[in-house]
């Protein structure tokens, strides 16, 4: 017996289940991993497994849109943020987590909740009746994806999503590499030395760039014309845009002082801590579709990684999302089947935090509806409201693409303002808007 069915135990589904269960509703949470079915990208059957990076990005709620989103979610009792905070690892001003500890924490919290039943099963069709939240993410099983396509009457949109390699810390040569955050910036719990930096000279960089272009890649001919998402682009695709693209992107040496020369390197490869014990480090910005043997050979040409041992090599998987601005109403309901809500990356938001945030809102909207109440959508001045508005109608449906939260989604600050002050004006206005929304909607962190 359940009051609502949630399909998908990723970040969005887990957050939605938590919000509903804490409001007293019985949740059936279906997750296909653990039932004998896996995805091309997941490695475990843990709920809320982080597939790509282990970073929730900036945790600066004063100057950054995603940091503001972090804080809004914390204020609403987010399970994802609570476990992220509990399992954080040093990452400068960003919030990065021990991915295994984080997933285990989310799984344990949901399994222990008396209002949640976790069922390991693959769901191949949308339910014809009954309150439902679909949070199956970018790797929706083919049967369910076909059912969604039939229900929406629209062709699915898709792009390729790539995964970065992870290196064993003990295999990194620290005689060449060094610890430093860019500009020695210190975040909460950090030291200013939260990244491992592997420097390159101009000659080394040019040789690496040429080898990256020449390396054999995994190709999916059936999907050759599918676009990449700009925020998770394979490193070799970036390299194809020009010889200096990487050097002004993920391999930028600015703000990093090589202790051997006292100068900024021509280019640099950064690694970020991936687990709490510091034994695993991921290669920042090095999502790739290079074949495995090519990855090992090429990445071992990077100074400091000559003897690198890889806990995971990079990969490529297909990502699917719907035309949410056209198909969903302002409460994330499917317009032609309003008993069904969508949440997470399948709605076209991008990023761990954004996915979780839409799961939180879907759970809150569903809880209000089950209680016979109305929950006003968060105002657009909030990070939650800006993201929701973009997904459910602000974006242009025909050109809709996955989007991270950013200040460009917020209503503009009126009048002339200094660029240096504008970010804090956005976040200050958002906090005021959230206070009003929570008071109007009788919301509180504990509710």
Automatic annotation (TrEMBL):
The protein's enzyme class: transferase
Keyword terms, alphabetized: Cytoplasm, FAD, Flavoprotein, Methyltransferase, NAD, NADP, Transferase, tRNA processing
Localization terms from the record: Cytoplasm
Cofactor: FAD
Coiled coil: none
GO cellular component assignments: cytosol
Protein name: Methylenetetrahydrofolate--tRNA-(uracil-5-)-methyltransferase TrmFO
Organism (species): Sphingomonas leidyi
């Amino acid at each position: 017996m359940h009051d609502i069915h949630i399909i998908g135990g990723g970040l969005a589904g887990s957050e939605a289940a938590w919000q509903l269960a804490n409001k007293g509703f019985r949740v059936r949470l279906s997750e296909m991993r653990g039932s004998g079915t896996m995805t091309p990208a997941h490695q475990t059957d843990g709920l809320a497994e982080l597939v790509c990076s282990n970073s929730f990005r900036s945790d600066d709620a004063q100057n950054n849109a995603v940091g503001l989103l972090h804080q809004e979610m914390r204020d609403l009792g987010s399970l994802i943020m609570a476990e992220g905070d509990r399992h954080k690892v040093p990452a400068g001003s960003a919030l990065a987590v021990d991915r295994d500890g984080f997933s285990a924490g989310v799984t344990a919290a949901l399994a222990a909740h008396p209002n949640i039943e976790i069922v390991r099963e693959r769901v191949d069709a949308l339910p014809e009746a009954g309150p439902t939240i679909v949070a199956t993410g970018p790797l929706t099983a083919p049967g369910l994806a076909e059912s969604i396509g039939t229900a929406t009457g629209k062709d699915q949109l898709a792009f390729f999503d790539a995964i970065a390699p992870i290196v064993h810390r003990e295999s990194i040569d620290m005689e060449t590499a060094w610890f430093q955050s860019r500009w020695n910036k210190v975040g909460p719990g950090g030291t200013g030395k939260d990244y491992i930096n592997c420097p390159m000279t101009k000659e080394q960089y040019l040789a690496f760039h040429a080898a990256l272009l020449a390396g054999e890649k995994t190709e999916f001919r059936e999907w050759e014309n599918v676009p990449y998402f700009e925020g998770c682009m394979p490193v070799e695709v970036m390299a194809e845009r020009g010889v200096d693209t990487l050097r002004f992107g993920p391999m930028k040496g600015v703000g990093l002082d090589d202790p051997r020369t006292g100068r900024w390197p021509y280019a640099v490869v950064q690694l970020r801590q991936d687990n709490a014990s510091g034994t695993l480090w991921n290669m920042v910005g090095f999502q790739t579709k290079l074949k495995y043997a090519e990855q090992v050979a090429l990445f071992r040409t990077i100074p400091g990684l000559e003897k690198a041992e890889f806990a995971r090599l990079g990969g490529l998987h297909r990502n699917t999302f719907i035309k949410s601005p056209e198909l969903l109403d302002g409460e994330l309901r499917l317009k032609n089947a309003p008993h069904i809500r969508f949440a997470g990356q399948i709605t076209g938001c991008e990023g761990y935090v954004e996915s979780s945030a839409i799961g939180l809102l879907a759970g809150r909207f569903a809880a209000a509806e089950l209680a016979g109440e109305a929950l006003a959508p968060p105002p657009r001045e909030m990070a939650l409201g800006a993201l929701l508005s973009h997904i459910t109608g602000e974006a242009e449906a025909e050109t809709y693409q996955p989007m991270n939260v950013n200040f460009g989604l917020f209503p503009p600050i009126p009048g002339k303002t200094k660029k240096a002050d504008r970010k804090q004006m956005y976040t200050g206005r958002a906090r005021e808007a959230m206070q009003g929304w929570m008071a109007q909607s009788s919301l509180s962190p504990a509710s």
